[in-house]
Design goal:
This protein is of the alpha+beta class and 343 residues long. The protein has 14 helices and ten strands. 46% of the residues lie in helices and 14% in strands.
Length: 343
């Protein structure tokens, strides 16, 4: 989009409410490729991507401006910066101007687009479409798709462990490590190592929770998997499984057929473990993440490799090395978490 290029370096602060009942928080707002990026004001880690064509202004003509990533999305962003407001209005006007109009011309243009898609499909469209769609969807839609994938996965693993006391302990651990943007579930069978799904969904195997010798091991597994999620594009493999037509429908209508994810659970469980339990996350990012959470890195590193040989660099760079810290969970919560699958 040519008109968007001059705004690619434009950024400002805003007040973001991720859900109607959540507190507002200050975020960094900037333009991306067809998206508006909301990032943490301190770490600059992305918190959400709003598709520009879907953004709605909730109070036209009023200041500060209020925006939403779509109808009934639940999220809200308040912006006072006039330059950013003008940019959003201009981009929105351009997008609306480019929308096809009813009539014969629309039919002709639609036919040309379909023909172009058919011609390009053999060469570059599938992967390009998947990458674009994976990067353009708002957080709410990614969370919805992640829950759909989890539903298919639980055909094989059984329902997530749900002992009430354990779930409460897991929620407290999530709040400390991920905030409200993430979700953690413990699966009974089939999962050999931590994994993730779109929308910030972290999956833990029951064996890890029950065999860990301290809550810092489980907390470390959660942080590492979330960092791996941020270093990858969780939607891409899922959309490759769904296929080009389902991905195209998702991009154009915002809906992904549930049937498109059938069998994805087998794919996820059959994946060979990563060569490194920490790949593709970078060591410096992991160290910074553990420092931010004030969590020792050594317990999980030792859990991955008791000899310490393959994780020596991480152990030596542990930001909490030599510092006495409280466990990630108290004794009562830790016992409850280890019994989460006893329902």
């Amino acid at each position: 989009m040519t008109a968007l290029k001059k705004y690619l370096r434009l950024e400002c602060t805003g007040l973001w409410r991720p859900s109607p009942d959540a507190q507002r928080r200050e975020v960094l707002v900037s333009f991306g490729d067809a998206t508006l990026i909301l990032a943490d004001i301190k770490s600059e880690r992305a918190l959400g991507h709003w598709s520009l064509p879907a953004i709605i202004r909730l109070n036209p003509g009023e200041t500060p401006a209020l925006y939403s990533p779509g109808e009934d999305a639940g999220e809200e962003l308040e912006i006072e910066d006039e330059t950013m407001i003008d940019a959003l209005e201009q981009v929105g006007a351009l997008i609306r101007a480019r929308e096809p109009r009813p009539g014969r011309l629309r039919i002709i243009l639609l036919g040309l687009i379909v023909a172009a898609i058919a011609a390009a499909a053999v060469f570059w469209l599938p992967d390009a479409l998947i990458r674009h769609t994976a990067g353009a969807l708002p957080l709410a839609k990614r969370q919805e798709i992640g829950r759909m994938a989890l539903a298919d996965l639980t055909r094989l693993t059984g329902a997530p462990c749900a002992m009430p006391e354990g779930r409460a302990a897991l929620a407290r651990l999530r709040d400390r490590l991920l905030g409200r943007r993430g979700e953690i579930v413990v699966l009974r069978d089939g999962l050999r190592s931590p994994a993730h799904l779109p929308g910030g969904l972290i999956l833990l195997p029951r064996a890890l929770v029950e065999a860990a010798d301290s809550p810092d091991v489980v907390a470390g597994a959660i942080l590492v998997e979330d960092e791996r999620r941020e270093a990858s594009q969780p939607l891409a493999p899922l959309l490759r499984h769904a296929g080009i037509m389902a991905t195209l429908k998702l991009l154009t209508s915002g809906e992904l057929p549930a049937s498109a994810l059938r069998g994805y659970g087998e794919v996820l469980l059959s994946r060979a473990p990563a060569r490194s339990a920490f790949a593709p996350a970078r060591e410096e990012d992991l160290i910074a993440r553990f420092a931010e959470a004030e969590l020792p890195l050594t317990p999980y590193a030792r859990h991955v490799d008791p000899s310490g040989e393959s994780v020596l660099k991480l152990i030596e760079a542990d930001p909490m090395r030599g510092i006495v810290t409280d466990p990630a969970l108290g004794d009562t919560d830790w016992v409850a978490l280890q019994g989460i699958c006893m329902d």
